[in-house]
Every structure is written in C-alpha cells, then in structure tokens.
Write a structure and sequence with these properties.
Length: 427
C-alpha cells in the first residue's frame, strides 16, 4: 500500500471501528520501511545483499482508566480494523494513560519511495574497504545498510507523517590485540569516509607493535572512539524511564550533580547528528533540550508516559522501533565540546577493542582500550590494552576536562562526545 492509501485506510478503519470502541479513544501508527543490507567480503571482493520492504501498524485504545495495544504486519484496511478490535479486547487497567496532542489536519503527506541500488551499495562498500582500511589489515566484516522509513500517526482526521533516510557503514578489522569496530553515517560521499579512515588507521596503529603496561598514576584521556560508550551510558542514565525507576535521580533535578565543565544536550537537527526529526512518534514537537547545564541536572528524555509519571511536560522524545509502543529515547544526544587543555603527561586511549557488551550491568560501562603514553605532550610508547570499569554517574562526577573534537557514533546509539579527561586509575 502507498502512504496515501495507508492513511486513507487508517481513517476508514478508525471510523468503522467506532461502534466497537464505545468509551475509548483510538489511534493507529503506520510504518512502511524499505531496507538494504550489503555484506562485503573484502578478501574475495564478493558480496551478499538482503532487501526488505515491510508494512506494519500498531493500534492503541484508551480512556482515563484502561489502555490496550495490538500490532502486526498489514496488507489492507481489514488488517487495521482487526488490530483496533484486538487492542480493545486487550485493555487493562492503567493509571497513567498518556495524554494526546492535536495532530495536523493538513492532507499533504511527505513523498516516499524505495528504490534501492545494490550495485551502488556494492561499489561504495568496495571503495570504503580499499580507501579506509589500513593496508595489510584483515577486514573481518564490512556491512553497508540503507533504510528508508515512512511513518504516520493517525488519530481521527488528524495525521502526522514523517520520512527518515539513513545509510551507514560498519567495519570490523582484525588487529594483533583484538578486533576493532567502527562506523559512520554516509551523507555526502567520501567526505564522510575520511573520519572513518582516520580512526581505523589510529586504532590499528595503537594496537600493533611493542607495548608496555600503562602507568596508573597518569590521568586518562579518552578520545571520542573510546569515550562514545560512556556517553551512551550517560544517555541511558538520563532517560525518563530510568528516572522513574530511580527516585533519588529524579529528585536531583535542579541540583549540581556534575562538575561545571559538563553540559549535555539533545538537538533534533544537530548538523552532525544521526537523526533529524521535527516531531516524535507520539505527535509532539521535538524540542531542543539541555539535560545538564554546566553540571546542573535540568531534566530527562521523556516520552508521554514517563513525563506523566514524573509530572512534567513531555518534550517530543517518544520514539518507536517499527510498530511498537513509544519509549523515551534521544535523537542527537551529545556532550557539549569545550576545548579544555590537556595536561603535559597522560595515558591516551584511542582504540576500543570489541567486547560482547559495553554495559554488562545497568549504569556501569566496561571497556578494553589501547593507546599511548604521552610525556610532555609527545607519544613515547604504546600501552597494553587496559580494562576500564566505569560507573557512569561516578565517572562523570570525576570528569576533569572536555575537548573540542565532538564526534557522533552509530556504534554508540548515535551519541556524540568530544575527548574526555579522567583522573588516574589510582588516586
């Protein structure tokens, strides 16, 4: 079904189901997504491509005391009506029915088309492997993905439709001391590949050759590729659902929780960010947010539900993965750059060795990272990869400096961070 046909079918289904939904409000969230995933085998210059084109929907019904949802793939209007009836049959008591906001009634919908080019993707993947990976380095995996998603929230005669396009390349390289994974969002061709090339070369260089043990007395400098999982951990900590489950954290709003050098924002249209949105998936305008202002905790990332539970206004961060219920999530979450000066001597961590997970326990980031010992501003020797166990809240409370090299990472949930300066491991 085309987007126009989907919206027309949704309006018809809502109207037809009204007699079955006595006492209930209702809405439909529609998703049409095209996807292309191309796996490039660099050693043999072969590839495998997977194409997808899905159409799904989620129905939600509610009143002041109950709520029900149902979701699944759809093929025609009858499927939408079926989902609405299923949602009404699955209602359960709810004390926090999310409020609704008025939707636009303008009938003009954004255009959407899905015309994947496997040959172009193959050409780009081969070129990235050739130009970005250091010579002689084994490429364990190179995956180029493209997604084009059209979504629409339909409530009564109102509709809010949006289109997102995203193309990324993920590369896993083998080094003498473990695998390195990096990724970039592709926007304007080779200019975006330069950052990937620079980081891969730096990582392979740092993880090859003779090493010494790190000096635990030196402060630690986490370059963006290493700091990114820590920034993602902070993004998790500042989600509304986490605040709901952590009353002490929620009560800290307005207090200076971190050093003055930490400012954290989430901007819907940051020029370097991963996602550009004007609205969230619950029909609310995506506002520019400052979550930490020079160390003072200002607020959290909220969906309608988490905002209602904490008694604060929602601000457009109710996002969905496909046809699912919305949850609190960031768009372009980042630690604001400052350009603080580094000390003369420090441990510089530039490469993160791939591990199974970076947050094995909520609120605690685990990393294995390698790099250099720096004395009087000069790299003097490589250090053996070191294990870092970083409790998110305590680590940011001990932050000593923030660089000016802000970088966003698909491998860290799209979060952005500059270089971070932390105290020595022994202090």
């Amino acid at each position: 079904m085309t987007p126009d046909a989907l919206v027309a079918a949704a309006r018809a289904a809502l109207a037809e189901a009204r007699p079955e939904l006595v006492g209930l409000e209702a809405e439909l969230f529609l998703v049409r997504e095209g996807s292309l995933a191309l796996e490039h085998e660099a050693s043999s210059n072969t590839f495998a491509a997977r194409l997808g084109d899905t159409c799904s929907a989620m129905a939600r019904v509610w009143n002041t005391t109950v709520r029900g949802v149902a979701s699944g793939p759809i093929g025609d209007g009858a499927d939408l009506a079926r989902l609405l009836i299923q949602a009404s049959q699955r209602t359960a008591p709810s004390s926090s029915s999310p409020p609704t906001s008025p939707l636009p009634t303008d009938s003009r919908l954004p255009s959407w088309s899905w015309e994947p080019s496997v040959s172009q993707a193959r050409s780009d993947a081969a070129r990235i492997a050739r130009e970005c990976v250091p010579e002689g380095t084994v490429v364990q995996a190179l995956v180029l993905t493209r997604r084009s998603t059209w979504s629409a929230l339909v409530r009564g005669q109102g509709v809010l439709a949006q289109v997102e396009h995203r193309e990324e390349v993920f590369v896993r390289c083998e080094t003498p001391r473990g695998a390195v994974v990096d990724a970039v969002v592709l926007r304007a061709g080779q200019s975006e590949w330069a950052a990937l090339r620079e980081r891969l070369h730096a990582a392979v260089d740092a993880l090859s050759g003779p090493v010494r043990e790190a000096d635990p007395r030196l402060p630690r400098v986490l370059r963006p590729a290493v700091a990114a999982p820590l920034a993602a951990g902070l993004g998790w900590l500042l989600r509304g659902d986490v605040a709901v489950a952590t009353p002490a954290l929620a009560r800290a709003v307005g207090k200076k929780v971190f050093p003055s050098l930490l400012t954290v924002e989430d901007l819907p249209r940051h020029v370097e960010g991963m996602r550009h949105r004007d609205w969230d998936d619950e029909g609310r305008e995506a506002q520019a947010l400052r979550l930490v202002d020079e160390g003072r905790l200002v607020g959290f990332l909220h969906s309608q539900e988490s905002a209602a539970r904490l008694g604060v206004p929602p601000h457009g961060r109710g996002l969905r993965e496909g046809a699912t219920e919305a949850s609190a999530a960031a768009l372009n979450f980042f630690i604001a750059p400052r350009g603080d000066a580094l000390p003369a001597s420090y441990t510089e961590l530039v490469a993160r060795v791939e591990t199974f997970t970076t947050m094995p326990r909520p609120g605690r980031v685990s990393l294995i990272a390698g790099g250099w010992e720096v004395r009087d501003g000069r790299r003097v020797h490589r250090i053996a990869p070191m294990e870092l166990e970083l409790p998110v809240l305590e680590t940011f409370r001990s932050l000593r400096g923030v660089g000016d090299d802000l970088t966003f990472f698909p491998t860290a949930e799209g979060c952005g961070t500059p270089t971070l300066l932390l105290p020595p491991s022994r202090e």
